[in-house]
Amino acid sequence: MSNIKTAVSIKESLFKKAETLAKKLGISRSKLFATALEKFIRQQENRELLKKINEVYSQTFRPDEESYREQKRGYHRQSLEDKW
């Protein structure tokens, strides 16, 4: 996969914090920004997935399905929250 250069505008205070953190971690600013953006995108994707899962689980179920539904809902929520 190829890299693309881009220019973004951010507050100077945020830039300084990013520069300090990148130096502390021993990575480039580009790597820091790319990593942060990847994480943010993953979080948004997980939120969308959780929204869809919640829509499915909000449907009416038979009483015998309710316990299983709650167990799986907790499992899915925990799985996604661990990734945030």
Mean pLDDT: 87
Give me the Rg, rounded: 20 Å
The secondary-structure class comes to mainly alpha
Number of domains: 1
User: Total strand count, please?
Assistant: 0
Low-confidence stretches: none
Q: Tell me the major beta sheet.
A: none
Order of helices and strands: HHH
Helix content: over 70%
Query: So how many helices?
Result: 3
Tell me what the structure shows.
The structure is a single chain. The chain has one domain. The chain is about 75% helix and about 0% strand. The chain is elongated, with a radius of gyration of 20 Å. It has helices at about 10-25, 30-55, 65-84. α1 (about 10-25) crosses α2 (about 30-55) and α2 runs antiparallel to α3. With about 80 residues, it is mainly α.
List the helices and strands and how they pair.
Blueprint: H1 12-25, H2 29-57, H3 63-83
Helix pairs in contact: 1-2, 2-3
Question: What's the quick description here?
Answer:
The protein has 84 residues and is an all-alpha fold. The chain is 76% helix and 0% strand.
List keywords for this structure.
84 residues, mainly alpha, 3 helices, 0% strand
